[in-house]
């Protein structure tokens, strides 16, 4: 019955709001007070500058210990929100209990918006007493603009950032600091009223942690000012950052291609998420994200077409170039060291054999060598390296570049010659049979 009274009250409120701009106040059967107010926004076709405009509604109910605020674009949705108790987020201060009389919500500046506040009967409000007050603040948000710009930059420059060691170290340090902040928040939320279920999993560690907080600060729940200016908290976050820096530096590897790809695509997804959350219209944010993806794909296709167009001209035989052996022969047949030296073999070994008269070994010995441009030798990688392989001279077998065996041999002092496609062991090194498998 109380639910029916609430729905009927909201139906009457919707009619009154059309005729008057004053908020409608009423009580349900259980004494719960509802106050509804309607705000007229901008038309949806006026994107600029309202796309990055922050519209904040501050609801203040003097004497209220707990209140719930519901928002919707139409009255039917508002009734559904109230019936399902889908209240809006009122900010961190209201969540942790520092300010229970006010609720700060952000609404869209486009279209009509309804805001309803529900006050329980335990609060000191009556028909003749003080009512909840509504105040609206609308201004251009620098945070939304910075979020949008940061998302675009992260998406476009994800690849160079993933290869930058200072960026990776900074990201690891920041991640550990955020983890330390999350642990601190859960430990403090464990002592808040009606919030004990949040940190049940941290009960074993929480007793000792909160005991230390009580010892250092003199109270179970310190204020944010105490936390921000406390030297103990600075030491706590400083140690967390140093641990994150050390762990990231220890496990960081520029040769790990998989890790760089994970970081690159993770930054791209983060950039798209920031773009999607940086405006007050979800449709416009989704359109911007799709434009970024289309631009990235178009650029990749252009690069691929340009590379394919230049490839025949680059591989066309000339007086300074020699056709390399087919890639299938390199991958399937055993690789000999002589084949890895660029253009060191005579031309007769690099072309399919044809029937020739037996003229003896002197014919091969006096075969003239083909002149090769010096810049081609310095810049061109071995065909074996272009396939992602390199020959280990200690075992006379090929291994994959960037894999565990390759990284282990590099750490042991093996020298890599990309032009010849070989790995030379250090002096005095005994070859091991475990380094011969391709990994």
Give me the secondary-structure category: alpha+beta
Show unreliable segments: 1-22, 193-209, 313-322, 327-345
CATH topology title of the largest domain: Immunoglobulin-like
Please tell me what the overall shape is. Answer: elongated
Rounded to an integer in angstroms, the radius of gyration calculated over CA atoms is: 35 Å
Helix content: 40-55%
Give the strand tally.
11
Termini separation = 72 Å
User: How large a portion of the residues is in β-strands, by DSSP E?
Assistant: 5-15%
Biggest sheet, strands in spatial order? 1-2-6-4
The secondary-structure element order is HEEEEHHEEEHHHHHHHHHHHHHEEHEE
CATH architecture of the largest domain: Sandwich
Quick one: CATH class of the largest domain? Mainly Beta
Number of helices, counting only DSSP H or I runs of 4 residues or more: 17
Summed up:
The protein is an alpha+beta fold and 439 residues long. 47% of the residues lie in helices and 14% in strands. It has 3 domains: 2-140, Immunoglobulin-like (Sandwich), CATH 2.60.40; 147-276, no CATH class; 327-346 and 368-435, no CATH class.
Mind explaining what this structure looks like?
This protein has about 450 residues and is α+β, with helices and mostly antiparallel strands. It folds into three domains: about 1-140, Immunoglobulin-like; about 145-275, no CATH class; about 325-345 and about 370-435, no CATH class. The protein has 17 helices and eleven strands. Helix 4 packs antiparallel against helix 10 (about 255-275), helix 6 (about 165-190) crosses helix 9 (about 230-250) and helix 10 packs antiparallel against helix 11 (about 280-315). The protein is elongated and about 90 Å long. It is found in: Nucleus inner membrane.
């Amino acid at each position: 019955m109380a639910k029916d009274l609430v729905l009927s009250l909201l139906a009457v409120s919707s009619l009154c709001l059309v005729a008057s701009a004053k908020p409608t106040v009423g009580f349900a059967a259980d004494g719960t007070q509802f106050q509804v107010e309607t705000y007229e926004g901008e038309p949806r076709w006026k994107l600029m500058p309202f796309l990055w405009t922050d519209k904040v509604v501050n609801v203040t109910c003097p004497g209220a210990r707990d209140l719930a605020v519901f928002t919707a674009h139409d009255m039917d949705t508002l009734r559904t929100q109230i019936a399902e108790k889908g209240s809006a987020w009122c900010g961190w201060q209201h969540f942790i209990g520092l300010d229970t009389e006010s609720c700060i919500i952000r609404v869209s500046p486009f279209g009509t918006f309804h805001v309803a506040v529900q006050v329980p009967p335990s609060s000191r409000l009556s028909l003749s007493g003080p009512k909840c007050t509504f105040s609206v603040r609308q201004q251009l948000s620098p945070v939304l603009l910075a979020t949008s710009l940061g998302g675009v930059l992260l998406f476009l420059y994800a690849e160079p950032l993933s290869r930058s060691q200072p960026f990776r170290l900074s990201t690891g340090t920041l991640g550990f600091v955020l983890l330390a902040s999350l642990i601190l928040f859960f430990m403090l939320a464990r002592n808040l009223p009606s919030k004990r279920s949040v940190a049940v999993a941290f009960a074993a560690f929480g007793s000792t942690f909160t005991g230390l907080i009580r010892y250092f600060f003199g109270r179970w729940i310190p204020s944010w000012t105490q936390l921000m200016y406390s030297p103990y908290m600075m030491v706590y976050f400083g140690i967390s950052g140093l641990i994150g820096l050390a762990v990231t530096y220890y496990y960081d590897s520029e040769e790990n291609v998989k890790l760089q790809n994970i970081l690159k695509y993770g930054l791209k997804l983060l950039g798209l998420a920031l773009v999607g959350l940086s405006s007050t219209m979800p449709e416009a944010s989704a359109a911007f994200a799709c434009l970024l993806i289309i631009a990235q794909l178009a650029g990749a296709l252009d690069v691929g077409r340009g590379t394919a167009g230049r490839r025949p001209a680059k591989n066309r035989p000339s007086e300074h170039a020699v056709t390399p052996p087919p890639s299938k022969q390199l991958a399937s047949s055993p690789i000999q060291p002589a084949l890895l030296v660029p253009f060191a073999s005579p031309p007769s070994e690099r072309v399919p054999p044809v029937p020739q008269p037996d003229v003896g070994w002197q014919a091969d010995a006096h075969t003239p060598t083909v002149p090769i441009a010096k810049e081609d030798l310095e810049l061109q990688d071995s065909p074996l390296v272009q396939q992602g392989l390199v020959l280990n001279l200690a075992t006379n077998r090929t291994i994959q570049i960037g894999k565990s065996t390759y990284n282990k041999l590099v750490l042991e002092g093996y020298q890599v010659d990309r032009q010849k496609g070989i790995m030379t062991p250090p002096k005095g090194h005994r070859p091991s049979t475990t380094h011969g498998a391709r990994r």
